[in-house]
Amino acid sequence: MPSDCPPLPPSRRRFLALSGLAALTPFLGPTFDHRDQLGHRDPDPLGRPVPGRPAPGRRLPLSSGDPVEAYQRDFVRMITERTDIRLMDGPAGFLYRPRQLLVAPADLGRVLDVLPRLAKSRFTVGESFADVARVVFDEETDIPAVVAGLRNPDRWRGDPVPAVQPHHVTVGHPNIMGNPGGPPTLSAKIDPPVPGSERLGRGVLVGICDTGLWLDAPNFHQDWLNKGCRSKAGDEDQLYRQDGKLAMEGGHGTFVAGVLRQTAPGVEFDPQVALDPTGIGDEELLARALAGLDPQTQLVNLSLGCLTQDDLPPLPMANMLMALQKRRTGELVVLASAGNAASRRPNWPAAFSEVIAVAAVQDRKGAVGPAPYSNFGSWVDACAVGEWTSTFVPGVFDLPGCDPVVFEGFASWVGTSFAAPVVAAQVARTMVELGVSAREAVATLLDGPTLAPGFGVYVAR
């Protein structure tokens, strides 16, 4: 085993880790036929009491199923039913959008010339994004097989292999791909900021590309999310399923924002939608979110990521990062969660060298060590505690076979998603305390020994 792989204890919670995507295979078929089986929207999606609705902050009597396993199974069910997601299974698996092939513009002509020999379906050139061309097939096509054929050097007789890839699907990192602890759980209200703590990170603007922000969060969480929130129209987290219950990652962006502000109460934040409330996005949605950030943004938090075909860096994301730096008025640093698959496979965008990749640790009464669910590897730069209680949303979280849980605006959750904003907040604090740029603050903060092989430098709260 390579030296960057720390020993990890076996855990039933790792049975769906992306290090073994083949574990999903019994649940999945080669194609998916989705029909929307959800009910009607809740009459009051903001969670205010309505006739017949149970009181908040308690479990409803139903069953005693395991919410961790139920959360994982429900994610599997969701991706098998959705027509806009496909799975390439096996130990090198990944999720992708059907019927779409992404191509570097310089390679488009010669790719189009050979495609008829690799795919039976007719195709057209669709709308591009992130300086990448998109080929759309009329019928269901084995995109990974087409990509493999195009990446075969023998086909090009000494010419460079074209830059081609599937359109990868991204997930929010508490999601099922190696989920460490399942869904959010009930918690008490967190205390307001300590007087005077608003000086910590004061004025640093952090972009949060996630599920967006609960529309009423600045009013409901006035202590934490009111001041410094730059939410605009279109930045709203949709939160709920059609039956009015909380979606699998509804409130994820609101939770991340709360972790950020708890660590650096003086930072400002700009929420953008890069994931739907089930925790699913893609490279195009991420490109839109990054393009929508305030030009004054100094730090970007991405608590999401994807695996890719052949573990190659995704071209759209590489282009996004380059364009992001060009559009900013000053220096900018991007931080991303490493993922929760207990795997060393590179997770993107965290694995880009110009991105600060953040793994998770556990703090057990002062004893800090690697979290068994966290991804790790030579591409990881930092680590922080991934178990948090934070700002959340009102609503009922209902998993098959488990007791429904009624949230009233606060929750506890676990994952590398919540380690990343800790590091982002500490970078902001260092910028203010030392009067340095974002990159200088990162260099200062990460100037130390690694916590454990593959986990990077430990950043305390």
CATH fold node name of the largest domain: Rossmann fold
CATH top level label of the largest domain: Alpha Beta
* Oligomeric state of the chains present here: single chain
Overall SS class: alpha/beta
> How many angstroms separate the termini?
32 Å
Largest sheet: 8 strands, mixed
The CATH superfamily of the largest domain is Peptidase S8/S53 domain
Number of DSSP E strands? 18
Residues in β-strands, percent: 15-25%
The share of residues in helices is: 10-25%
**Domain tally:** 2
H/E series, N to C? HEEHEEHEEEHHHEEHEEHEEEEEEHHE
Q: Helical stretch count?
A: 10
What does this structure look like?
This protein has helices spanning 67-81, 108-118, 143-150, 217-220, 222-226, 252-263, 283-291, 315-327, 420-434, 438-445, and strands at 86-88, 94-103, 123-125, 133-137, 164-172, 185-186, 205-210, 268-273, 280-282, 299-302, 304-305, 333-337, 355-364, 367-370, 382-385, 387-397, 405-414, 457-458. Strand 16 (387-397) and strand 17 form a beta hairpin. The protein folds into two domains: 94-169, Alpha-Beta Plaits, CATH 3.30.70; 171-458, Rossmann fold (3-Layer(aba) Sandwich). The longest helix has 15 residues, at 67-81. By secondary structure, the protein is of the alpha/beta class. Strands 7, 8, 10, 12, 13, 14, 15 and 18 form an eight-stranded mixed beta sheet that branches. Strands 1, 2, 3, 4, 5, 9 and 11 form a seven-stranded antiparallel beta sheet that branches. The protein has a three-stranded antiparallel beta sheet with strand order 6-17-16. The radius of gyration is 22 Å and the shape is globular.
